[in-house]
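User: I've been trying to design a sequence by hand for this structure and keep getting stuck. Would you show me what you'd pick, starting by listing the structure so we're on the same page?

Assistant: Good idea, let's start from the same input. This is the structure you sent:
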């Protein structure tokens, strides 16, 4: 028992000794950490802190003096600020902007190599800084080509082949697709067999040229169609990534369609998709016939004679017309069928991101007349100060006046539509706007200044909700909010130009693709506006869109077919309504200024280079 007791006592003493040693070591280490911390504070803030000499008799549990406590708080704040500077600098260098403040004493740390994936949505490889810590990383070598959403598929090149009788809306659908795909960022080009025929000197070909009884004319038509098809396929071969060629011809026989499919199979990665337009609506056909009589084939011909000749051409095509069926090419044919320009849509074996978007877009288009009004929000106080990304709702006196004039303008347009017999587009107007307070302030000023527009409830005007009035329905969506300035939100344009000169220069070099760190580019805004475009195409009512400048530019560029490189520089003046009237082959545009703007606002826009 005694031996056991002695062993236990020795063990307990050993454990106690070890515990005591660890405790002393911890306290000494803590004292050492505190000493190092205060030495760092004294070194970095000699003018802000006394340098107390530590006494060798101070306990390891010494409580800091008031001066030491203040210095500690200042050091922690400075280190936090420096860490924020490092983060912003790393994010900007990651995109090649060189966003660094000269006053920062710390050298930015290298960013994580793949952290840019969070914003890489528009395709292409992100740029490398021309020099600095992240230059050795080669995205192409280490990752290969990085595509945007929908930018890659195993069958990345698509040959859209139009199918249908003359005057069935094939050229209209072609123009709509070109406008939408170009605006969305996909390379697209149309190849029209009729244009090839006219270029070869057969612009005034009569109906007999399209009759199968003339063997020589039939052979010539097939040669023209084959030439046009080969040009489209050759254009697709020139591209390595996703692109669309539109073969605009009748393609009304199974033999012609099989020939197209066989030709595409000889080229890897080219997928033929047929788009058949079927129309049996007499009213639509009459309008299409009238449009056809204005093309190059009938310009110098009497309208009655031209109409009779064109109808004979249609009858010649009807004799050999074979609609697309599911069993063509052993059931492997891919097609989209449109009935009466969007009344009904059928899709067969159309898969993938691009074709799904094309099919969804075509199912929402129509040719009903209506107006689309684009307007920037009413002038605000923050706008005069030139603050980027402002969300405050305070309107200026001129801003409230513009809202009143806008309400009167809408009421006048509605009355004119009713007098012209356009009841569908004037029955109920729709207002689409963003979710920031200044958009709601514009709407509120419109409604409160024009009681005839209907009853209005202030509580109903809340983000994400809808306002129901007698004359129109107002709806909001964050998709219509302004381009996100990221880390530059809340700064004035002068601040950005002064504090971030490299960032400003990068924006000036490529305004379309430039992306603010932690923010957006114009291409990003286009990407999130696609559902808005579908809604604008779908609606048969007239629509007013209230938003900021960048969103207005993107929407205007879509409807007018503006070249994408010119989009960031479009003139969209304050207190001006842009009236768009989409038509079969073009879009009518009218600018109506309804109020003046503050001189300070005009000067700010000139000084800022028309931000954003």
């Amino acid at each position: 028992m005694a031996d056991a007791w002695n062993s236990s006592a020795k063990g307990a003493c050993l454990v106690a000794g070890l515990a005591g040693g660890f405790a002393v070591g911890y306290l000494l280490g803590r004292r050492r950490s505190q000493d190092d911390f205060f030495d760092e504070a004294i070194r970095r803030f000699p003018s802000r802190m006394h340098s107390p000499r530590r006494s060798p008799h101070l306990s390891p549990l010494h409580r800091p003096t008031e001066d030491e406590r203040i210095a500690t708080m200042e050091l922690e704040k400075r280190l936090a600020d420096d860490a924020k500077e490092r983060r912003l600098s790393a994010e900007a260098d990651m995109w090649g902007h060189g966003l660094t403040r000269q006053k920062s004493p710390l050298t930015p740390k290298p960013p994580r190599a793949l952290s840019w994936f969070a914003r890489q949505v528009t395709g292409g490889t992100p740029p490398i800084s021309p020099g600095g810590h992240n230059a050795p990383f080669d995205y192409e070598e280490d990752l290969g080509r990085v595509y945007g959403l929908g930018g890659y598929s195993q069958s990345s090149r698509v040959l859209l082949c139009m199918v249908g009788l003359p005057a069935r809306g094939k050229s209209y659908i072609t123009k709509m697709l070109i406008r939408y795909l170009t605006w969305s960022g996909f390379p697209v080009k149309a190849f029209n067999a009729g244009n090839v025929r006219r270029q070869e000197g057969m612009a005034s070909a009569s109906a007999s040229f399209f009759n199968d009884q003339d063997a020589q004319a039939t052979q010539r038509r097939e040669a023209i169609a084959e030439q046009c098809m080969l040009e489209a396929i050759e254009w697709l071969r020139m591209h390595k990534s996703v692109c669309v060629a539109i073969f605009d011809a009748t393609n009304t026989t199974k033999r012609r369609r099989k020939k197209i499919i066989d030709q595409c199979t000889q080229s890897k990665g080219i997928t033929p998709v047929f788009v058949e337009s079927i129309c049996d609506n007499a009213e639509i056909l009459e309008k299409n016939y009238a449009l056809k009589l204005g093309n190059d084939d009938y310009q110098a011909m009497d309208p009655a004679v031209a109409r009779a000749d064109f109808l004979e051409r249609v009858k010649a095509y009807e004799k050999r017309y074979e609609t697309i069926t599911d069993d063509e090419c052993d059931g492997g044919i891919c097609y989209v069928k449109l009935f009466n320009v969007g009344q009904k849509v059928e899709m067969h074996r159309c898969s993938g991101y691009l074709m799904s978007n094309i099919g969804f877009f075509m199912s929402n288009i129509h040719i009903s007349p209506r107006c689309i009004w684009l307007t920037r929000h009413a002038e605000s106080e923050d706008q005069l100060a030139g603050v980027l990304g402002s969300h405050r709702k305070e309107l200026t006196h001129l801003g409230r006046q513009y809202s009143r004039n806008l309400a009167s303008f809408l009421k006048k347009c509605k009355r004119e539509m009713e007098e012209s017999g356009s009841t569908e587009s004037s029955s109920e107007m729709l207002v689409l706007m963003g979710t920031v307070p200044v958009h709601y302030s514009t709407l509120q000023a419109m409604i409160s200044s024009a009681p005839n527009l209907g009853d209005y409830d202030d509580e109903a005007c809340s983000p994400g909700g809808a306002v129901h009035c007698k004359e129109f329905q107002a709806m909001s969506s964050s998709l219509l909010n302004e381009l996100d300035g990221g880390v530059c939100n809340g700064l004035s344009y002068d601040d950005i130009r002064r504090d971030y000169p490299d960032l400003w220069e990068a924006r000036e070099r490529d305004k379309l693709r430039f992306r603010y760190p932690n923010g957006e580019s114009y291409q990003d805004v286009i990407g999130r506006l696609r559902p808005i475009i579908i809604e604008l195409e779908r609606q048969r009512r007239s629509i007013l869109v209230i938003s900021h400048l960048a969103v207005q530019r993107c929407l205007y560029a879509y409807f007018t077919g503006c070249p994408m490189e010119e989009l960031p520089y479009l003139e969209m003046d304050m207190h001006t309504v842009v009236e768009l009237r989409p038509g079969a082959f073009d879009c009518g545009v009218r600018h109506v200024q309804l109020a003046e703007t503050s001189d300070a606002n005009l000067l700010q826009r000139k000084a800022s280079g028309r931000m954003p």
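That's my pick for every position. To get oriented when you compare it with your attempt: The CA atoms of residues 90 and 149 lie 25 Å apart. The mean pLDDT is 77.
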